[in-house]
Structures are given as structure tokens and as C-alpha cells.
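Fold these two proteins, one after the other.
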Amino acid sequence: MYAIVRAGGRQEKVAVDDVLTVDKLAGEVGSTVTFPAVLVVDGDDVVSSAAALAGYQVTAEILGAAKGPKINIMHYRNKTGYKRRMGHRQPYTEVKITGIKAGK
């Protein structure tokens, strides 16, 4: 059984015990978060209607914080002596999917 969930502006395919990296979430290590399901596939059954998906719940446990790769940004203007160098690392949260359940 797997589900497609919306996490951090993206859609991810998840199954139980998958470790997923999503945009930074508010919460402590060990706490539980829920993601809205977009599509659920259970064997041959595919559930995609919004009314049926309202009963499904995808739960995950926060494992910890992570950072993305370093991105170097360089601004340069010709003939003026202007140079500016910046860097960025996107903060992420690692979560482990603990369950996909049909609620109601």
C-alpha cells in the first residue's frame, strides 16, 4: 500500500517505513505529523476522489533536521567594481512514515 501526499508544496510517493525529506516543519524530534493524501493505492484499488480521501490519514514521525546542498550566488556588474558573493542552504526535516490508515 502506498499513498501520494502533499508535503512542502510538492507531492511525494510514500509507503510505510519510508524516510522522507520535506521542507522544514515546526515540531520536535519524535513528535507526530499528518500529511493530506492526494491519492491512495491499495493493491488493485485506487482511491482518488476527494470525498473518499477525506477519511485517509498519513502519519509520520519527525526524525530530525537536515540541510540541503550549499548554493553559491554571485552578483557581478561589469566595469563598476561591484562584486557580491552569497550562499544558501535550505533547511529540511526528515520524517519517517509510520502509517497509512483509512479513518472514518
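Now the second one:
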Amino acid sequence: MVMGGNYGTARARQESITLHAMPSPGLLLAVVCLLLLVLMTVDFIRGGLSIRLLRDVIVPGDASAPRVSVVIAARNEERNIEPALRSVLAQDYPNLEIVVVDDRSEDRTASILSRLAVRQPLLTVVRIDQLPAGWLGKNHALQEGANAATGDWILFTDADVVMNPSTIRRAIWLVTSGGIDHLAGVADMTVPGSFLRLFVMGFILYLNMYLRPWKARDPKSRCYIGIGAFNLVRSDIYRAVGGHTAIAMRPDDDLRLGQLLKRSGYRQDIVSGHQVMEVEWYHSMRELVLGLEKNQFAALNYSLVITVLGSLAHLLLALGPIAGVIWGTGLARWIWVLVVLVTVLGYAVCTPYVRVRWWYALGYPLVAVLFNLVLWRSTLLTLTRRGIRWRGTYYSLRDLKANRAPF
């Protein structure tokens, strides 16, 4: 019995040593989170560095100049349309036409366009007075602009994008020399106010982590990209995939056009328009919240399940490590500190694009909370209204959902 007692004591001691040697669940969670975050951050930084700068594209003197049609949809754009359109008219590209679609504007947009069209043979203005059923206003305007276009390439751009005179010439050389069918361009963002810049910084990070746009050029990848400020596409393939008719009720039309082209097997790429393109994304925080109201829920295909799970996961990833730093112990706490530092690094990479100091990245917990508040506002308003209201027009949720199936 003495021997049995000694054996039992030794076995208990051995089990105690084994249990103490095993890492705690909190430590394992911290390690896994750190590894995943490092991999994502490395992918984000490497991917960002692989995106070519349009300003660095050298165009040879004998480069071909296929006809390019610039298509702009404008509704109540009196604040921005003139400087944006003048920058397009000032392009040094030799084979250009510009089609501006005035989509039921109620402000001075029409009079500004009429004045600019005088002695401007490159400029054609199309007026829309009624929106047909089954269309979002902007998508219908872009389709009408494309119908009027005669170019080999169509450049869809927004009414508030200002371009350097060499922008289109460089972009056309890039796509024609590289065999690219669709090129999306990222413009510099003019964002007034530090608080708004803080939000936009996070928005850039989330969008890039979600889309991984640098993978759009890989034909084996399902990743895709499309940007409303600069979507340059061959006109024949645009028409081959059905144009905006296929995405008539998509508030996120720019992304979905890119997705449609990629799914159809066409070659796609993204370029940075740093220092050659600029856009005033939103003028105030109120404008941003109202602007994202229409497409946050749409980007998640109007799925409440995906919205709930995605929101919870995002908040846990953003705020959980901070809780680990505060309440964690031992090695786990220090690993959570590393997680927070790596997160700050990811945000800091985005700060030059909105012209803020790197230390703005320390405000990322606030950005995460704000982002989810905007998402839930968009979701709840869409559900309670049974649709969205965008630029004075109501679109039912039933019609919006009917156009989600291809994606």
C-alpha cells in the first residue's frame, strides 16, 4: 500500500507538471491572433508596394492612341463639376471624346455644362429627365453615356475627380502595352478635417484587406477591383458582359463592374494615381455617413447573417487585443501588446493617402467602432425602409435584392 501511495503521488505530480507545461487558452489565442495579423499585414504591405504608380509610366513618342470616351454621370454636381471637367478637357491625349450625362439635376449643373460645352467639340452633354424602372440613377446614366460613346476604350469617372493632363495618356499606354482589358485607378483623397481623415484611413485599410486588389491581376485569383473614380475598360468587352444593364440595381456598381469583368475571364489590374488624380471623397462626416448609407449593406449582399458575424468579428479583432493588454497576464499580455503594435502598423501604412501623421493610427479603436456604427445604420435603415433613398430617389429592397444573384 505504501508503494501504491507513492505511485499515486508520483502520477499526480507528473500530471501537474504536464498541465503547467501546457500553454493557457489565453496564450494560445494571443499567439494565433498575432500570427494571423502578421500574415495579413505582410500581405497588405507587399501587395500595396506591388501596385504600380501611374506617374512613373513612361509613354514612348510613337505610342498608339486608340479612341477613348470619357463618361461622367452628374446629378446636382454644381460644387465640383467645373474643375473636374476642365481637367478632363485639358488632357494631352490626342484622340478623346467626353460624354457627360446630366441625370435629372436640379441645381446649376445643367447651366455649367451648357457654358463649358460652348466651343468644346470634344464635349457631348446628354440630358436625362426620367428614370426608367429597374435602374439606379447613376447606373442608368453611365449606361446612357456608354451608349453614346464611340471610343475603343471607355473611361468611367466621377464628376469630382481632377486629373493631371497626362493621366489618360499614361493609362492607355499601360493597358495597351500590357494586354490589360480593365484598369482601375486609385485617386488621392482630399478629406477635410482630422476626424474625417481618421475614418477614411480605416476605410482604406478595411477595403484593401477585404478585396486584396493587388491580386486582381492574377487570373487564378477570385479577387477583383473596380473604382468609380477611374474605371478604364475596353468598350467591346464592356458591351460583351452586358454593361451596366447587368448591374442596374447595384449601389456598389464600380466594384461589381470589376467583379463582372473578372468573372468573365478578362484581364484586370489596378494602378495608383498618386499625384496625378485627386478626388474630394466627402466634404463632411455627415456627407460620408449619408453617402455610405446606400452601399454598406449592399456590399454584404443584403445578408443580415453576414452583417452580424462580420461586425462581431471586426470588433473582436479590433478591440479584443486591447482587452488582452489591460487584463492579460504574463507572456500573453506581451503578445497582445505585439498584436496592438502590428495593428497600428497596418493603419499607419494608410495615413499618407489621407495626409495625416502616422500617429493617427493610434485612433484605430475609435475607427472600428465608427465603421460598425455606419454599417449598422445602413443595415437598419435599409431594412426598416424596405429599400434605400439615394439622391432623391427611392429604390425598394425587393428590386435591389433581385440584382444580387450574379455575385
